[in-house]
Amino acid sequence: MMTDTNHIALARSLAPVIRFCDNEPFLPSHVGITVHDKPQRSPSAPMDVTFEDGVHRVIEYAIWWDWDIQHLYELEHVWLKLDADDQVIGVDASAHGKLFAMRRADGSLPLEAGRVTLYSEPGKHAFHAEAKPIHDLAPRLAAACTDLAGYGTILVQKMFAEAFAGFTAEDHRAVKRYLQDRAFWPAEGFDQAVRLEEATYMTWPELKTYIASRVPQVLAEVRKVQPLLKAVFLDSGDTMVDEGTEIHDEDGNVAEARLIPGARETVERLAAEGYRLVLVADGRKKSFDTVLGHHGIRQLLAAEVISEVVGCSKPDPLMFSTALDAIGLGPEDAADVVMVGNHLGRDINGANRAGLISIWLDWSPRRHKIPEDIDEVPDYIIRTPGELPKLLDYIEQGLSKRATSGTLRAAMEKTVSTRASA
Question: Per the UniProt record, which residue ranges are transmembrane (predicted)?
Fold first, then answer.
Protein backbone atom coordinates (compact mmCIF):
# COMPACT_ATOMS: atom_id res chain seq x y z
CA MET A 1 0.00 0.00 0.00
CA MET A 2 1.57 3.26 -1.08
CA THR A 3 0.54 6.67 -2.24
CA ASP A 4 2.63 9.66 -3.32
CA THR A 5 2.22 12.67 -5.60
CA ASN A 6 3.01 10.59 -8.70
CA HIS A 7 0.30 8.10 -7.77
CA ILE A 8 -2.20 10.91 -7.23
CA ALA A 9 -1.31 12.33 -10.64
CA LEU A 10 -1.87 8.89 -12.19
CA ALA A 11 -5.16 8.48 -10.34
CA ARG A 12 -6.36 11.86 -11.56
CA SER A 13 -5.41 11.07 -15.16
CA LEU A 14 -7.46 7.85 -15.04
CA ALA A 15 -10.27 9.18 -12.86
CA PRO A 16 -13.74 7.86 -13.71
CA VAL A 17 -16.65 9.90 -14.96
CA ILE A 18 -19.75 9.58 -12.80
CA ARG A 19 -23.20 10.02 -14.27
CA PHE A 20 -25.86 11.35 -11.91
CA CYS A 21 -29.57 11.71 -12.47
CA ASP A 22 -30.42 15.06 -13.96
CA ASN A 23 -31.74 16.57 -10.72
CA GLU A 24 -29.28 14.98 -8.26
CA PRO A 25 -28.62 17.72 -5.65
CA PHE A 26 -25.48 16.27 -4.03
CA LEU A 27 -22.21 15.89 -5.94
CA PRO A 28 -18.79 14.66 -4.73
CA SER A 29 -16.08 17.12 -3.79
CA HIS A 30 -13.02 15.24 -2.49
CA VAL A 31 -11.19 12.03 -3.35
CA GLY A 32 -8.74 10.11 -1.18
CA ILE A 33 -6.28 7.95 -3.10
CA THR A 34 -4.57 4.70 -2.11
CA VAL A 35 -2.46 2.66 -4.53
CA HIS A 36 -2.26 -1.08 -3.82
CA ASP A 37 0.54 -3.26 -5.16
CA LYS A 38 -0.83 -6.50 -3.67
CA PRO A 39 -4.12 -7.94 -2.36
CA GLN A 40 -4.99 -6.48 1.03
CA ARG A 41 -7.68 -4.89 3.13
CA SER A 42 -8.86 -1.47 2.06
CA PRO A 43 -7.83 1.25 4.55
CA SER A 44 -11.00 3.26 3.92
CA ALA A 45 -13.70 0.60 3.56
CA PRO A 46 -14.42 -2.78 5.17
CA MET A 47 -13.62 -4.57 1.92
CA ASP A 48 -10.78 -6.62 0.44
CA VAL A 49 -8.86 -5.36 -2.57
CA THR A 50 -8.30 -8.34 -4.88
CA PHE A 51 -5.85 -8.95 -7.70
CA GLU A 52 -6.98 -11.12 -10.62
CA ASP A 53 -4.70 -12.43 -13.36
CA GLY A 54 -2.94 -9.60 -15.17
CA VAL A 55 -3.57 -6.98 -12.49
CA HIS A 56 -0.36 -5.13 -11.66
CA ARG A 57 -1.75 -2.57 -9.22
CA VAL A 58 -5.05 -1.13 -8.03
CA ILE A 59 -5.97 2.50 -7.55
CA GLU A 60 -8.51 3.00 -4.79
CA TYR A 61 -10.69 6.11 -4.97
CA ALA A 62 -12.44 6.96 -1.69
CA ILE A 63 -15.03 9.47 -2.93
CA TRP A 64 -16.49 12.00 -0.52
CA TRP A 65 -19.84 13.78 -0.54
CA ASP A 66 -21.04 16.09 2.23
CA TRP A 67 -24.50 14.59 1.80
CA ASP A 68 -26.48 11.49 0.99
CA ILE A 69 -30.23 12.15 0.82
CA GLN A 70 -30.64 10.09 3.99
CA HIS A 71 -27.65 11.19 6.07
CA LEU A 72 -24.85 13.68 6.57
CA TYR A 73 -21.78 12.49 4.70
CA GLU A 74 -21.23 9.88 2.10
CA LEU A 75 -18.19 7.81 1.21
CA GLU A 76 -18.28 5.51 -1.82
CA HIS A 77 -15.43 3.73 -3.55
CA VAL A 78 -14.07 2.83 -6.96
CA TRP A 79 -11.12 0.49 -7.57
CA LEU A 80 -9.42 0.70 -10.95
CA LYS A 81 -7.39 -2.41 -11.76
CA LEU A 82 -4.37 -1.73 -13.96
CA ASP A 83 -2.05 -3.93 -15.95
CA ALA A 84 1.74 -3.45 -16.15
CA ASP A 85 1.21 -0.63 -18.69
CA ASP A 86 -1.31 1.15 -16.41
CA GLN A 87 -4.21 0.29 -18.68
CA VAL A 88 -7.57 -0.31 -16.98
CA ILE A 89 -8.48 -3.99 -17.20
CA GLY A 90 -11.03 -4.17 -14.41
CA VAL A 91 -13.27 -2.00 -12.22
CA ASP A 92 -14.84 -2.65 -8.85
CA ALA A 93 -17.08 -0.21 -7.02
CA SER A 94 -19.15 0.05 -3.86
CA ALA A 95 -22.90 -0.13 -3.46
CA HIS A 96 -24.63 -0.09 -0.07
CA GLY A 97 -21.63 -1.36 1.84
CA LYS A 98 -20.67 -4.11 -0.62
CA LEU A 99 -18.14 -4.41 -3.43
CA PHE A 100 -19.26 -5.32 -6.96
CA ALA A 101 -17.43 -5.86 -10.22
CA MET A 102 -18.50 -3.19 -12.70
CA ARG A 103 -19.47 -4.90 -15.94
CA ARG A 104 -22.23 -4.12 -18.36
CA ALA A 105 -24.89 -6.70 -19.17
CA ASP A 106 -22.86 -7.78 -22.21
CA GLY A 107 -19.79 -8.35 -20.02
CA SER A 108 -17.84 -5.32 -21.24
CA LEU A 109 -16.13 -2.74 -19.05
CA PRO A 110 -18.13 0.48 -18.51
CA LEU A 111 -16.05 2.72 -20.77
CA GLU A 112 -17.15 5.86 -22.60
CA ALA A 113 -14.61 7.61 -24.85
CA GLY A 114 -11.93 5.45 -23.25
CA ARG A 115 -12.79 6.58 -19.68
CA VAL A 116 -14.43 4.43 -17.01
CA THR A 117 -17.95 5.79 -16.62
CA LEU A 118 -20.23 4.73 -13.78
CA TYR A 119 -23.82 5.52 -12.87
CA SER A 120 -24.72 6.74 -9.40
CA GLU A 121 -28.02 5.97 -7.67
CA PRO A 122 -30.09 9.14 -7.12
CA GLY A 123 -29.56 10.46 -3.62
CA LYS A 124 -27.85 7.27 -2.41
CA HIS A 125 -24.83 7.33 -4.78
CA ALA A 126 -24.19 3.58 -4.96
CA PHE A 127 -22.45 2.72 -8.23
CA HIS A 128 -23.59 0.71 -11.25
CA ALA A 129 -22.02 -0.01 -14.63
CA GLU A 130 -25.12 1.19 -16.50
CA ALA A 131 -28.46 2.89 -15.88
CA LYS A 132 -30.82 -0.07 -16.18
CA PRO A 133 -30.23 -1.54 -12.68
CA ILE A 134 -30.97 1.90 -11.25
CA HIS A 135 -34.20 2.15 -13.23
CA ASP A 136 -35.12 -1.28 -11.88
CA LEU A 137 -34.69 0.09 -8.35
CA ALA A 138 -36.80 3.18 -9.08
CA PRO A 139 -39.57 2.59 -6.48
CA ARG A 140 -37.09 1.97 -3.67
CA LEU A 141 -34.92 4.93 -4.63
CA ALA A 142 -37.94 7.21 -4.96
CA ALA A 143 -38.94 6.29 -1.41
CA ALA A 144 -35.40 6.95 -0.14
CA CYS A 145 -35.33 10.37 -1.79
CA THR A 146 -38.80 11.43 -0.63
CA ASP A 147 -40.59 9.84 2.32
CA LEU A 148 -37.38 8.46 3.84
CA ALA A 149 -35.18 11.51 3.26
CA GLY A 150 -33.07 12.24 6.32
CA TYR A 151 -33.84 9.04 8.18
CA GLY A 152 -30.14 8.13 8.51
CA THR A 153 -29.39 11.49 10.23
CA ILE A 154 -25.62 11.77 10.87
CA LEU A 155 -23.72 8.73 9.68
CA VAL A 156 -21.28 7.65 12.40
CA GLN A 157 -19.01 4.89 11.16
CA LYS A 158 -16.64 3.03 13.46
CA MET A 159 -13.52 4.81 12.18
CA PHE A 160 -15.02 8.19 13.11
CA ALA A 161 -16.87 7.19 16.28
CA GLU A 162 -14.46 9.07 18.55
CA ALA A 163 -14.44 12.23 16.41
CA PHE A 164 -18.24 12.33 16.28
CA ALA A 165 -18.92 11.27 19.87
CA GLY A 166 -20.17 14.71 20.90
CA PHE A 167 -23.14 14.83 18.52
CA THR A 168 -26.48 15.11 20.30
CA ALA A 169 -29.92 13.73 19.53
CA GLU A 170 -30.95 17.26 18.60
CA ASP A 171 -28.03 17.45 16.13
CA HIS A 172 -29.26 14.28 14.48
CA ARG A 173 -32.80 15.65 14.31
CA ALA A 174 -31.58 18.90 12.74
CA VAL A 175 -29.85 16.92 9.99
CA LYS A 176 -33.00 14.88 9.46
CA ARG A 177 -35.09 18.03 9.01
CA TYR A 178 -32.46 19.59 6.72
CA LEU A 179 -32.61 16.60 4.39
CA GLN A 180 -36.39 16.28 4.56
CA ASP A 181 -36.50 19.86 3.29
CA ARG A 182 -34.36 18.76 0.31
CA ALA A 183 -36.30 15.67 -0.67
CA PHE A 184 -36.67 15.22 -4.42
CA TRP A 185 -38.22 12.90 -6.96
CA PRO A 186 -35.38 11.31 -8.99
CA ALA A 187 -35.25 12.12 -12.68
CA GLU A 188 -34.93 9.26 -15.17
CA GLY A 189 -32.10 10.79 -17.22
CA PHE A 190 -28.40 10.60 -16.32
CA ASP A 191 -27.00 13.46 -18.37
CA GLN A 192 -25.38 15.15 -15.36
CA ALA A 193 -21.83 13.84 -15.85
CA VAL A 194 -19.15 14.72 -13.30
CA ARG A 195 -15.49 14.35 -14.25
CA LEU A 196 -13.99 13.05 -11.03
CA GLU A 197 -10.58 14.40 -12.01
CA GLU A 198 -11.91 17.88 -11.20
CA ALA A 199 -12.45 17.03 -7.52
CA THR A 200 -9.92 17.83 -4.80
CA TYR A 201 -7.40 14.99 -4.58
CA MET A 202 -5.37 13.86 -1.56
CA THR A 203 -4.12 10.71 0.08
CA TRP A 204 -6.60 8.61 2.07
CA PRO A 205 -5.04 9.56 5.44
CA GLU A 206 -5.41 13.21 4.46
CA LEU A 207 -9.05 12.66 3.48
CA LYS A 208 -9.72 10.81 6.73
CA THR A 209 -8.41 13.80 8.66
CA TYR A 210 -10.49 16.12 6.49
CA ILE A 211 -13.68 14.12 7.15
CA ALA A 212 -13.16 14.23 10.91
CA SER A 213 -13.14 18.04 10.77
CA ARG A 214 -15.56 18.52 7.87
CA VAL A 215 -18.57 16.73 9.36
CA PRO A 216 -18.69 18.94 12.49
CA GLN A 217 -18.28 21.96 10.22
CA VAL A 218 -21.22 20.93 8.03
CA LEU A 219 -23.29 20.21 11.13
CA ALA A 220 -22.52 23.68 12.51
CA GLU A 221 -23.70 25.19 9.23
CA VAL A 222 -26.92 23.18 9.43
CA ARG A 223 -27.57 24.23 13.02
CA LYS A 224 -27.31 27.88 11.97
CA VAL A 225 -29.97 27.62 9.28
CA GLN A 226 -32.24 24.73 10.26
CA PRO A 227 -35.13 25.75 12.55
CA LEU A 228 -36.28 23.27 15.19
CA LEU A 229 -38.95 23.26 17.84
CA LYS A 230 -37.33 24.74 20.91
CA ALA A 231 -39.41 22.85 23.44
CA VAL A 232 -42.43 20.62 23.97
CA PHE A 233 -44.57 21.58 26.98
CA LEU A 234 -46.58 18.69 28.40
CA ASP A 235 -49.57 18.68 30.72
CA SER A 236 -49.86 15.70 33.05
CA GLY A 237 -53.42 14.77 34.02
CA ASP A 238 -55.22 13.01 31.15
CA THR A 239 -52.28 13.93 28.94
CA MET A 240 -49.74 11.53 30.39
CA VAL A 241 -51.44 10.30 33.56
CA ASP A 242 -54.91 8.71 33.53
CA GLU A 243 -56.77 10.82 36.10
CA GLY A 244 -59.41 8.12 36.41
CA THR A 245 -56.87 5.82 38.07
CA GLU A 246 -55.53 8.28 40.63
CA ILE A 247 -55.38 7.20 44.26
CA HIS A 248 -54.86 9.96 46.82
CA ASP A 249 -53.23 9.80 50.21
CA GLU A 250 -54.71 11.28 53.38
CA ASP A 251 -53.21 14.69 52.56
CA GLY A 252 -54.79 14.83 49.13
CA ASN A 253 -51.61 14.10 47.15
CA VAL A 254 -51.73 11.60 44.29
CA ALA A 255 -49.98 8.52 45.63
CA GLU A 256 -50.55 6.23 42.68
CA ALA A 257 -51.89 6.39 39.10
CA ARG A 258 -51.50 4.64 35.77
CA LEU A 259 -50.33 6.30 32.59
CA ILE A 260 -52.46 6.69 29.50
CA PRO A 261 -51.62 3.86 27.04
CA GLY A 262 -48.64 4.89 24.94
CA ALA A 263 -47.72 7.91 27.07
CA ARG A 264 -44.45 6.63 28.46
CA GLU A 265 -43.32 5.25 25.10
CA THR A 266 -44.11 8.59 23.48
CA VAL A 267 -42.20 10.61 26.06
CA GLU A 268 -39.23 8.26 25.82
CA ARG A 269 -39.20 8.57 22.03
CA LEU A 270 -39.38 12.35 22.11
CA ALA A 271 -36.54 12.51 24.62
CA ALA A 272 -34.47 10.14 22.48
CA GLU A 273 -35.04 12.41 19.47
CA GLY A 274 -33.66 15.38 21.38
CA TYR A 275 -36.83 17.35 22.12
CA ARG A 276 -36.65 19.43 25.29
CA LEU A 277 -39.63 18.34 27.36
CA VAL A 278 -41.10 20.57 30.04
CA LEU A 279 -43.89 19.67 32.43
CA VAL A 280 -46.44 22.49 32.63
CA ALA A 281 -49.15 21.23 34.95
CA ASP A 282 -51.66 22.24 37.60
CA GLY A 283 -51.45 20.40 40.89
CA ARG A 284 -49.17 19.58 43.77
CA LYS A 285 -45.46 19.07 43.32
CA LYS A 286 -45.42 15.97 45.54
CA SER A 287 -48.05 14.33 43.35
CA PHE A 288 -45.97 14.79 40.20
CA ASP A 289 -42.77 13.75 41.98
CA THR A 290 -44.45 10.54 43.05
CA VAL A 291 -46.36 9.52 39.94
CA LEU A 292 -44.04 10.77 37.16
CA GLY A 293 -41.04 9.61 39.15
CA HIS A 294 -42.51 6.14 39.57
CA HIS A 295 -43.12 5.80 35.83
CA GLY A 296 -39.65 7.03 34.86
CA ILE A 297 -40.80 10.25 33.22
CA ARG A 298 -39.31 12.87 35.55
CA GLN A 299 -35.72 12.14 34.49
CA LEU A 300 -36.68 12.78 30.87
CA LEU A 301 -37.87 16.33 31.58
CA ALA A 302 -35.71 19.40 31.07
CA ALA A 303 -37.81 21.38 33.58
CA GLU A 304 -40.99 21.25 35.64
CA VAL A 305 -43.42 24.14 36.06
CA ILE A 306 -46.13 23.30 38.59
CA SER A 307 -48.98 25.55 39.66
CA GLU A 308 -48.41 24.96 43.39
CA VAL A 309 -44.85 26.28 43.02
CA VAL A 310 -45.63 29.15 40.62
CA GLY A 311 -48.64 30.32 42.60
CA CYS A 312 -51.17 30.29 39.78
CA SER A 313 -52.84 27.86 37.41
CA LYS A 314 -53.26 27.62 33.66
CA PRO A 315 -54.36 29.50 31.60
CA ASP A 316 -52.53 32.23 33.55
CA PRO A 317 -49.75 33.57 31.27
CA LEU A 318 -47.30 33.30 34.16
CA MET A 319 -47.35 29.51 33.90
CA PHE A 320 -46.16 29.64 30.30
CA SER A 321 -43.68 32.49 30.71
CA THR A 322 -42.19 30.64 33.68
CA ALA A 323 -41.86 27.51 31.56
CA LEU A 324 -40.09 29.43 28.79
CA ASP A 325 -37.77 31.09 31.27
CA ALA A 326 -36.97 27.72 32.92
CA ILE A 327 -35.14 26.59 29.78
CA GLY A 328 -33.67 29.93 28.78
CA LEU A 329 -36.34 31.03 26.33
CA GLY A 330 -38.36 34.22 26.07
CA PRO A 331 -41.65 35.39 24.55
CA GLU A 332 -39.97 35.75 21.16
CA ASP A 333 -39.43 31.97 21.15
CA ALA A 334 -43.06 31.05 21.83
CA ALA A 335 -43.93 30.35 18.19
CA ASP A 336 -41.33 27.57 18.18
CA VAL A 337 -42.77 25.84 21.26
CA VAL A 338 -45.71 23.46 21.43
CA MET A 339 -48.06 22.89 24.35
CA VAL A 340 -49.76 19.51 24.57
CA GLY A 341 -52.75 19.22 26.90
CA ASN A 342 -56.20 17.78 27.40
CA HIS A 343 -58.02 20.86 28.67
CA LEU A 344 -59.37 23.36 26.15
CA GLY A 345 -59.99 26.01 28.78
CA ARG A 346 -56.58 25.75 30.47
CA ASP A 347 -53.98 24.16 28.19
CA ILE A 348 -55.21 25.31 24.79
CA ASN A 349 -56.50 28.70 25.89
CA GLY A 350 -53.30 29.47 27.76
CA ALA A 351 -51.04 28.25 24.96
CA ASN A 352 -52.86 30.24 22.29
CA ARG A 353 -52.79 33.43 24.33
CA ALA A 354 -49.08 32.94 25.03
CA GLY A 355 -48.34 32.52 21.31
CA LEU A 356 -47.45 28.83 21.54
CA ILE A 357 -48.45 26.09 19.13
CA SER A 358 -51.38 24.34 20.79
CA ILE A 359 -52.05 20.59 20.54
CA TRP A 360 -55.18 19.19 22.12
CA LEU A 361 -55.13 15.57 23.23
CA ASP A 362 -58.78 14.58 22.88
CA TRP A 363 -58.58 11.42 24.95
CA SER A 364 -60.31 12.11 28.25
CA PRO A 365 -64.11 12.02 28.73
CA ARG A 366 -63.74 14.30 31.75
CA ARG A 367 -63.44 17.70 30.03
CA HIS A 368 -65.58 19.75 27.66
CA LYS A 369 -64.85 19.15 24.00
CA ILE A 370 -66.40 22.16 22.30
CA PRO A 371 -64.35 25.40 22.35
CA GLU A 372 -66.15 28.16 24.21
CA ASP A 373 -64.26 30.94 22.40
CA ILE A 374 -61.58 31.42 19.75
CA ASP A 375 -58.77 31.02 22.28
CA GLU A 376 -59.89 27.46 22.97
CA VAL A 377 -59.55 26.39 19.34
CA PRO A 378 -56.44 24.17 19.11
CA ASP A 379 -53.97 24.39 16.28
CA TYR A 380 -53.84 20.59 16.11
CA ILE A 381 -55.78 17.66 17.56
CA ILE A 382 -54.55 14.17 18.42
CA ARG A 383 -56.54 11.28 19.89
CA THR A 384 -53.74 9.32 21.54
CA PRO A 385 -50.23 10.13 22.82
CA GLY A 386 -48.77 7.87 20.13
CA GLU A 387 -49.84 10.35 17.45
CA LEU A 388 -47.65 13.10 18.89
CA PRO A 389 -44.22 12.20 17.42
CA LYS A 390 -45.55 12.15 13.86
CA LEU A 391 -47.36 15.45 14.40
CA LEU A 392 -44.22 17.09 15.79
CA ASP A 393 -42.34 15.79 12.77
CA TYR A 394 -44.90 17.49 10.52
CA ILE A 395 -44.85 20.75 12.50
CA GLU A 396 -41.07 20.91 12.59
CA GLN A 397 -40.75 20.32 8.86
CA GLY A 398 -43.06 23.27 8.39
CA LEU A 399 -40.79 25.61 10.33
CA SER A 400 -38.39 25.79 7.39
CA LYS A 401 -41.11 27.28 5.23
CA ARG A 402 -41.85 30.05 7.71
CA ALA A 403 -38.87 32.10 6.59
CA THR A 404 -40.24 32.35 3.05
CA SER A 405 -43.99 32.32 3.62
CA GLY A 406 -44.62 34.58 6.61
CA THR A 407 -44.77 33.67 10.25
CA LEU A 408 -46.13 30.38 11.44
CA ARG A 409 -48.25 32.19 13.98
CA ALA A 410 -49.93 34.26 11.24
CA ALA A 411 -50.72 31.11 9.30
CA MET A 412 -52.21 29.55 12.42
CA GLU A 413 -54.32 32.59 13.19
CA LYS A 414 -55.70 32.44 9.67
CA THR A 415 -56.51 28.76 10.20
CA VAL A 416 -58.22 29.49 13.49
CA SER A 417 -60.29 32.27 11.92
CA THR A 418 -61.32 29.93 9.13
CA ARG A 419 -62.40 27.28 11.63
CA ALA A 420 -64.35 29.81 13.65
CA SER A 421 -66.28 31.06 10.64
CA ALA A 422 -66.97 27.58 9.30
Answer: none
